[in-house]
């Protein structure tokens, strides 16, 4: 008896060579049974993921067999997740699992008239699953890391220019399960100019600071893949490198290979998973330390002191006019127009203890960034700004300020034209 097989299984042999590839051919919605078109761009959901769940189900027709396979995958994946997180198995009814599963990932499938054979991945809602299993839902994550994926193919280096299978792979990658807090630019507009392959070879910390401030990141990660093809449609070798920091310091390097050119997405997905693991291992080992020159301005050279023969002055702790010593902080503020930009700078300069305040990233109609030098620590700067009528949100070395709350400020800035910008900070 013949059996009709779906063409979805075209890359089976190549995927078998990469068991950890996790190639997401489609992400299937539980309620509609429809597959999403294209990669899930920038998917950062925090769902628990269980991959590599195999099912083989028979039913009266193809659709019933497929739905039965998904149900079986849910039950098997829940037991695997419980074993992984708690050390012992667990069982739940289908109704409870239906309310907890957020998606089904089709890694590989064969569909017959009354049979469904597949290898699936299952996504579980993190908070609900953690509550039932009695484990912590939160994980320790790195500081925000700007991601610049470089693909080298045929001697050409590209990041956001044109088509890039490496960039598409990072769009498919679900960062919510990683301890690395990736900042993934969309790749349009100024992204292609600010973050090209040439930028990854530059060492100037000043330009890197401006870019990181623009995207709200503390550091940069530069993963690279070099694709080597034997002939069109033939074997492909990928040389993957995990780089870190403005000096693009190598964290790890490895080589993967597939025999079929159609399996290139599987090769990329497997490489990205190993790169992410290398970054997580480096973070736990303390190797992803941020360059101190990316956090603060480099110290200025001291001016020579002329010998006058007079008695040396005693430091009383007072702020001397024109002094530039102090800690540098990044301050984000709303700039709906030019007047708001100017008044915001002057208002911050008027805060006691602030020795300098200059805009490093201007975004009219959005959120601009200024570099503020302050004689004191971050807590003192926050208190001084609040005393002047600013609302302040804090992060490591970064402050987000808005007008409103408290008494009227001494130097009032023009209020933002639209409150919708507040969510960008």
Descriptive overview:
Strand 15 (390-395) and strand 16 (398-403) form a beta hairpin. It contains eleven helices and 16 strands. Strands 5, 6, 7, 8, 9, 10 and 11 form a seven-stranded mixed sheet that branches. The protein is α+β, with helices and mostly antiparallel strands and 425 residues long. The protein has helices at residues 12-17, 62-86, 94-98, 126-133, 165-172, 191-194, 205-215, 264-284, 292-295, 338-349, 378-387, and strands at 26-28, 48-58, 101-111, 115-124, 144-147, 150-153, 156-158, 181-183, 219-229, 236-244, 249-258, 327-335, 354-361, 366-374, 390-395, 398-403. The chain folds into three domains: 7-133, no CATH class; 144-293, 3-Layer(aba) Sandwich (Rossmann fold); 327-424, Alpha-Beta Plaits.
How far apart the termini lie comes to 63 Å
* Class computed from helices, strands and strand pairing: alpha+beta
Strand content: 25-35%
Q: What is the number of helices?
A: 11
Cα radius of gyration in angstroms: 27 Å
Helix and strand pattern: HEEHHEEHEEEHEHHEEEHHEHEEHEE
Biggest sheet details: 7 strands, mixed
Record field, number of beta strands: 16
Roughly what is the average pLDDT, rounded to an integer?
Answer: 75
Helix content: 25-40%
Given as residue ranges, the uncertain stretches (5+ residues, pLDDT < 50) are 1-42, 308-324, 405-425
- CATH architecture of the largest domain, by name, is 3-Layer(aba) Sandwich
**CATH class placement of the largest domain:** Alpha Beta
């Amino acid at each position: 008896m013949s059996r009709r097989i779906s063409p979805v299984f075209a890359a089976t042999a190549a995927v078998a060579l990469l068991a950890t590839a996790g190639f997401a051919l489609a992400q299937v919605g539980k309620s509609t049974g429809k597959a999403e078109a294209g990669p899930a761009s920038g998917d950062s959901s925090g769902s628990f993921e269980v991959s590599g769940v195999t099912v083989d189900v028979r039913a009266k027709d193809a659709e019933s067999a497929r739905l039965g396979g998904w149900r079986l995958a849910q039950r098997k994946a829940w037991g695997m997740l419980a074993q992984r997180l708690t050390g012992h198995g667990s069982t739940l009814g289908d109704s409870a699992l239906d309310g907890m599963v957020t998606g089904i990932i089709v890694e590989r499938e064969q569909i017959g008239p009354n049979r469904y054979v597949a290898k699936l991945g299952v996504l579980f809602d993190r908070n609900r699953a953690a509550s039932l299993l009695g484990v912590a839902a939160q994980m320790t994550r790195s500081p925000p890391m700007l991601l610049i994926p470089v693909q080298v193919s045929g001697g050409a280096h590209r990041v956001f220019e044109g088509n890039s299978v490496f960039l598409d792979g990072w769009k498919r990658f679900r960062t919510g399960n990683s301890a690395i807090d990736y900042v993934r630019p969309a790749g349009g507009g100024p992204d292609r100019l600010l973050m090209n392959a040439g930028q990854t070879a530059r060492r100037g910390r000043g330009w890197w600071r401006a870019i990181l401030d623009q995207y709200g990141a503390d550091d940069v990660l530069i993963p690279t893949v070099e694709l080597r093809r034997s002939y069109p449609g033939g074997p492909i070798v990928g040389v993957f490198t995990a780089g870190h920091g403005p000096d693009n310091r190598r964290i790890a390097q490895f080589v993967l290979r597939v025999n079929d050119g159609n399996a290139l997405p599987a090769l990329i997905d497997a490489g990205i998973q190993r790169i992410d693991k290398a970054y997580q291992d480096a973070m736990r080992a303390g190797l992803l330390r941020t360059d101190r020159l990316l956090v603060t301005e480099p110290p200025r050279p001291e001016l020579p002191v002329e010998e006058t023969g007079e008695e040396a002055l005693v430091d009383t702790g007072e702020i001397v006019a024109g002094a530039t010593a102090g800690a540098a902080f990044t301050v984000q503020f709303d700039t709906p127009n030019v007047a708001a930009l100017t008044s915001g700078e002057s208002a911050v300069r008027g805060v006691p203890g602030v020795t300098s305040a200059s805009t490093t990233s201007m975004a009219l109609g959005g959120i601009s960034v200024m570099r503020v030098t302050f004689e004191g620590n971050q807590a003192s700067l926050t208190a001084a700004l609040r005393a002047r009528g600013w609302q302040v949100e804090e992060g490591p070395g970064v402050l987000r300020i808005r007008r409103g709350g408290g008494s009227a400020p001494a130097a009032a800035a023009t209020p933002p034209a639209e409150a919708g910008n507040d969510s960008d900070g």
